[in-house]
Amino acid sequence: MEFKQIEVTRTGPEDMIAVVSFSRPEKMNALTKVMEAELRLAFDQLDRDERVRVIVLTGKGRAFCAGMDIDELEVLPPGDIRAAEWMRPYDMNRRADYQARYTYMPAVRKPVISAVNGAAAGLGMVFALYSDICFASESAVFSTAFSKRGLIAEHGIAWILPRVVGPGHAADLLYSARKLTAPEALAMGMLNRVFPAETLLEETLKYAAELATTVSPRSLRVMKRQLWEAPCQTLSEAVMLANEEMFHSIESEDFSEGVRHFIEKRPARFTGK
């Protein structure tokens, strides 16, 4: 379908990589209700599209996402955050925790890689944190922003940020809302890799292509579920889930193909089944 404030393109081998771009470059990709709804719809569609194996999220122009559009934030009614459509899970087979307003990317079955090409503030930083993997350009800058707007730690960032950078760094970034450079974010563990601005998307797509073509989509789907459920589990529960999934993986087509392509010394032809 046609989108107004985001762009969705396909690329890579057999178009197995979907690139979702915030597309309001003149406004530093600040989030509006239109963009918010389009983004949720796009991720839902790509999650259901069996041709897509990896999703890359990035921004058009010089910013990734500069947070909520100030014109909309200024008139935002307090009750908006409690709207019924944001409070219910869409899929009862996945954790409701990961189906809220901005926490849905962990429930997407495919790997989500953020390619942070510029400013990522407020909700922009939230999106980056809920990605599975996060790359950034050397010029990218992050800020929680909330305390400087008289707001609080929104949308579960008080849960996810300490798990990514540790409680001390999380308190610093939330309390001060200071600007965080890409090299500092990398040192904190918030980023996986940092690239020159001119090669960021190219390098991200190269990595995405490796995931799309050389490893089992089924394995990625199950491992993603394991990684995001583990923080909500005991060790015993995590082991029980792993044992159950190991049983099913040995019965899968991708396991058979994984053994065959290794023995036959040829590229894998995984189906995700």
Automatic annotation (TrEMBL):
GO biological process: fatty acid beta-oxidation
Record-linked InterPro entries: ClpP/crotonase-like_dom_sf, Enoyl-CoA_hydra/iso
Domain of life (superkingdom): Bacteria
Gene Ontology terms for molecular function: catalytic activity
One Pfam family cited in the UniProt record for this chain: ECH_1
Transmembrane segments: none
Protein name as catalogued: Enoyl-CoA hydratase
Organism name: Noviherbaspirillum denitrificans
